[in-house]
Design brief:
alpha/beta, FAD/NAD(P)-binding domain
Length: about 525
Amino acid sequence: MPTTMQPQLTRRDELTAQLEQGRSYDIAIVGGGATGLGVALDAAARGFKVVLVESHDFAKGTSSRATKLVHGGVRYLAQGNISLVREALYERTTLLNNAPHLAQPLPFIMPSYKWWETPFYGIGLKMYDALAGKAGLGKTEFLNRDETLRLLPTAREQGLQGGVKYWDGQFNDAKLAMALARTAANRGALLVNYCRAAHLLYDESKVSGLVCEDTLTGKQYTLKTRCVVNATGVWVDELRQKDGAASGASSKRTTKPMVTPSQGVHIVVDREFLGGDVALMVPKTADGRVLFAVPWLGKVILGTTDTPRHDLAREPLPFKEEVDFILNESARYLRRAPTRADVKSVWVGLRPLVKPQDDDGDNTKGISREHTVLVSRSGLVTVTGGKWTTYRAMAEDVLDACAEKLLLESRKRGATTHLKLVGADIGAANIRSICLPPGLHSYGDEQAVVLSMPGAHTALCDGLTEGMVRFAARYEYALTVEDVLARRSRLLFLDARLAGSLAEQVGKLLQQETGIDPEVQAFVELAQHYLLLPT
C-alpha cells in the first residue's frame, strides 16, 4: 500500500469515538514507543485488527532519547555476540531503505592515540564490514594522522597517530516513531496517545481485554481483544504485577522484576565542536562504554553514560558525575573541550535492560541488550529490552510468541520487510535541492502538504514554521506544546532555552487547531530541566 500525498487526519474526538464503539480487536498493545509501534505496524500489515494505547505521547520515554544511531553494535562484536550484530546489521539496512527521509548512512572516525589502536580496532571493523556483506554502507579505511585531521578537524592533535573510518547509520528517533504510528494507522490500526491502560480484563483467568482511560478527560473505555501486548519499555513490570495479582497466580513467581533500568545521558553542543559531517567514536572510555560525538540536526550530541537507576521517573535528571564524565572524556579527544556553559540541552533516557533472574547486582554495562518476550499464565504478552535498530525484528518475535501460545493465528513473517513508512517515497522529493525552509526534508514526500499549511513560510525559528505546527496538530497526533517542540520537531533536544521561548507562540497555534489546553506553562517548566547551568 503506497503512501499518499494526502495524509490521514488525527482528530482527538474521532480517535476516542472509535474507542467508544466497543469494537473487538485481535490485538491490543499497551505502550507507544519503538517496540509497541513496531508491533502495531507489523500486526496491521498482516491484517489483524489492532488498537494501541499510550499513557503519554508516542515516544515520550526512552524512544525519543536515543543516541540517534542505527547501528549493528560495534561493542557487541567485541563481546562476541555475532548473532546480535548480524541481525542488527540486517535491520539497519532495512530501516534505511524503508525510511530514507529519516535515516541515512553516517561515517565515523575512531581516532588512535596509541600505535596499536588503528590495527587493533581496524581489524575488528573489517569484521564488521564482513558481517554486513552486501548490506554494508561503506568500506572501513585505515587513516594516517593527516587524513584523520582532514575528516575530523577538531580532534586533539597531541599524540594523534591516525584513525579508522567506518560507516553506520543515523536517524531521527521521535520522527521515526511518528512515521510508524501513522503507517500503522494507514493500515487500519487505531492508535491513541494520552490514554492509559487502567487495568486488564479476564475471562476464566485469561486476559480478554483492558480498560483504558483518556488522561485528558478521565473517561474510560472497555476494549475486548484476543491478545494484549505489554510493550511499555522500562515500565513493563507495573502491568506484569497487575496481571499477577488479578489472575490469581503466585505473586512470587509472576511479579519478580524483569527490568534493570540504566540511565543514559546525552549532551548537545554547537556544531563547531566537531566541525564537520563525520562522527567521532571512542571505543572504550574510563567506564568501559563507547563515547560518541555525533552531528545531528545542526548540533552535536555527546554521550552516553550507563548508570544504574532505581526509580522510573518520566523525566529523569542527569547526575552531576555523568555530565562531568562526558565533558571530561570529550576533552581527551577534542581540541577545544566543551564546558557546562556550552551545553544547549541535556536529556536522559532510561534503558529497559532485561535482568537475569538470578542477578541482583547493579552492573548494567554487562547486561544483554537483546530483547525478551514472555507470556504469562493468563496470556499477557510482555516484550522489553532490545534497541531501536531491531524494533522490526522484535515485533516479528512478539507476533510469533502470540501464535505459539494460540492467542493469534500464525501469519507469515516479513510483512514489514519492504514496507515503506509514511513519507518514504522521496523519489519526487529531490525537493531537497530546492530552496525550502530548514527541517522540511524529514517530511519526505509530504513536503508539499506541509507547504500548503497556513503559515508554511512563517518561521518561528530556524527549522520550525507555523505550518509545521499546524501539520503536527492535524496529522501527527500532537496535542501539547511539548509534543511539538520535543518530538514533532526536536527543538527541546537541540536548544532548550530557545524551545522554552517559543512555548507561547506554539501554544496559540495548537489551541486554534485542537481546542485543547496545550499546556504552555508546563512546557516552560520542563524546558528548564533540559538546561545545564554552570556550577
